[in-house]
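Milestone 3.1: sequence recovery, worked example.
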């Protein structure tokens, strides 16, 4: 199993290029659990490579003997039709086939407990099998990969509350210990953490005593001369699931919104902050899409605008006015799948062979695709 040497792989300490991995690095599988590396072999001349393009335009280059954990279109349809919701809706809309001759038998059948087939699960398929049937007969994308579960990074030392860190990254003053907000719930949450909140000079400006020291200790700010732009630190991004969910809620309570359909959006003009937010979502098992457009004021171009749109099965906000609108149930199956768009042959180049202890898969690429040796 060979992987293009420049491929990014998530480890317990962050992203690494495949060629920079060593045997002490901890990787992760699609369940978010840790896996250990057994062996790493660097190759100058590779075997036949394939370039896989996904529906989010991310690409992976791997050897043709790699297996991907996939579902095809037929299996996805079976899952839908075997669900309790689908059966209930079908019962309500389907006319009874009873002719009224044996009402007692009709009643008996309506109370009968049925044994249903098990829902199909993802299967490992080799690349060549997938390449031969990338599109289904109606030109639909045939193969998909389930979104990974939240990655369980080791706990990292962090002396700032993650929710407060998210609030400051969203609505904080870059060069002083202050935030701008009209939400009293946010101010109350900060006071409960032990900080003293005082009214600032602006209408919605508030100073937070002691916050600047905590921001510096956790690498979120530098000196004024450095003019360090806001970004999510690795210390926060590679922390426990609980810490990252709190960080996500702080960011969404400030720079996030929930539309009338319950869809979530994070919107900023800071590219690096947005890329960190997208990384945060991916590692929490959220399928998110990045969109780039123009930020304008009174019709005048200001800068580029970066938006991440997504849906989540768990709350991503704390503010009641936003939480009440977030959709948390009745998702379409597409929310949980990444789709394979195209597979083509790739030129021979430097590759890395990675062997994992045990029989687990491991995640590669920015979109966290589970692969396994065939």
């Amino acid at each position: 199993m060979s992987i293009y040497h420049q491929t990014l792989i998530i480890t317990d300490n962050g992203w690494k290029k495949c060629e920079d991995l060593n045997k002490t690095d901890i990787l992760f599988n699609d369940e978010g659990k840790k896996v250990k590396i057994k062996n790493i072999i660097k190759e100058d001349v590779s075997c036949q490579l394939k370039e896989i393009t996904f529906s989010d335009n991310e690409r992976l280059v791997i050897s043709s003997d790699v297996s991907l954990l996939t579902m095809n279109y037929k299996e996805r349809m079976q899952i839908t039709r075997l669900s309790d919701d689908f059966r209930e809706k079908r019962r309500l809309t389907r006319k009874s086939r009873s002719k009224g001759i044996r009402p007692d038998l009709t009643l008996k059948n309506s109370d009968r407990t049925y044994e249903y087939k098990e829902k199909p699960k993802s299967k490992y398929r080799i690349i060549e099998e997938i390449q031969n049937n990338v599109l289904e007969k109606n030109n639909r994308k045939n193969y998909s990969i389930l979104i990974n579960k939240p990655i369980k990074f080791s706990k990292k030392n962090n002396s700032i509350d993650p929710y407060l860190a998210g609030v400051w990254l969203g609505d904080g003053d870059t060069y002083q210990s202050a935030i701008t907000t009209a939400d009293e719930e946010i101010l109350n949450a900060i006071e409960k953490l032990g900080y003293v909140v005082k009214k600032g000079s602006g209408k919605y400006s508030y100073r937070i005593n002691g916050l600047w020291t905590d921001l510096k200790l956790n690498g979120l700010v530098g000196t004024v001369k450095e003019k360090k732009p806001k970004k999510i630190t690795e210390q926060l991004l590679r922390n426990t699931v609980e810490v990252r969910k709190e960080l996500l809620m702080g960011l969404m309570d400030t720079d996030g919104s929930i539309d009338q359909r319950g869809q979530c959006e994070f919107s900023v003009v800071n590219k690096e902050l947005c890329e960190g937010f997208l990384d945060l979502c991916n590692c929490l098992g959220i399928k998110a899409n990045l969109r780039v457009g123009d930020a304008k004021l009174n019709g005048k171009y200001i800068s580029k605008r970066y938006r991440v749109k997504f849906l989540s099965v768990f709350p991503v906000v704390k503010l009641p006015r936003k939480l009440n609108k977030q959709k948390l149930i009745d998702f379409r199956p597409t929310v949980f799948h990444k789709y394979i768009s195209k597979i083509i042959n790739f030129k021979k180049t430097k590759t890395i062979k990675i062997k994992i202890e045990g029989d687990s898969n491991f995640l590669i690429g920015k979109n966290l695709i589970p692969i396994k040796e065939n």
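The radius of gyration is 25 Å. The mean pLDDT is 91.
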